[in-house]
Amino acid sequence: MSGRKETVLDLAKFVDKGVQVKLTGGGQVTGTLKVYDQLLNLVLDGAVESVRDHDDPLKTSDQTRVHGLIVCRGTAVMLVSPTDGTEEIANPFVQPEAVCRGTAVMLVSPTDGTEEIANPFVQPEAVKEQHYCLDKF
Fold first, then answer.
1. What positions does the domain Sm occupy (predicted)?
2. Domain that holds residue 53
3. Residue 46: phi, psi to the nearest 5?
4. Residue 137: CB partners within 8 Å, gap ≥ 6?
5. Where are the strands (E) in 24-96, listed by range?
6. 68 and 59 Cβ atoms separated by less than 8 Å
7. CA–CA separation, 94 and 67 (whole Å)
8. End-to-end CA distance of the chain
9. 78, 105: one domain
């Protein structure tokens, strides 16, 4: 048993390899992991920061800042992932927006255009006038 404390993450396999680090507050830095400690303090070389979009702070813009050698404080580190073998994909959970137009619903999909369908929540007049008696049950 060694005297060195174990870290929450096994970062030894990422030393001298490219990593992407997401920080609290929305910061995102990419660089080569040089050193880390048990508190998850990281030293990145060739660090490049992705600049946040001024209009929508949840998105990153195409602008970057080159910082060189930086230290990421462990309490600010939320995620560490390798840069090799990763790619960005479309969000599969985005639902098309529904726009009500009277007795029909217009489905607006960012990729498929629009398609009009009957509104399943509007009852025909004949069904509205029927009354059900629950006293029989």
1. 6-86
2. 12-82
3. 65, 35
4. none
5. 28-36, 42-52, 60-72, 77-82
6. no
7. 34
8. 72
9. no
Residue pair 69/4 in contact (Cβ under 8 Å)? The answer is: no
Coil, strand or helix at 106: strand
Query: Tens of pLDDT along 102-124?
Result: 555 455 555 555 556 666 666 65
Residue type, 1: M
The identity of residue 27, as a single letter, is G
Cβ–Cβ < 8 Å for 18, 83? yes
Please state the domain count of the chain.
2
pTM: 0.56
pLDDT tens digits, residue range 50-78?
887 777 766 777 788 899 899 999 999 99
- Residue 3 covered by a domain: no
Rounded Cα gap, residues 114 and 38, in angstroms:
53
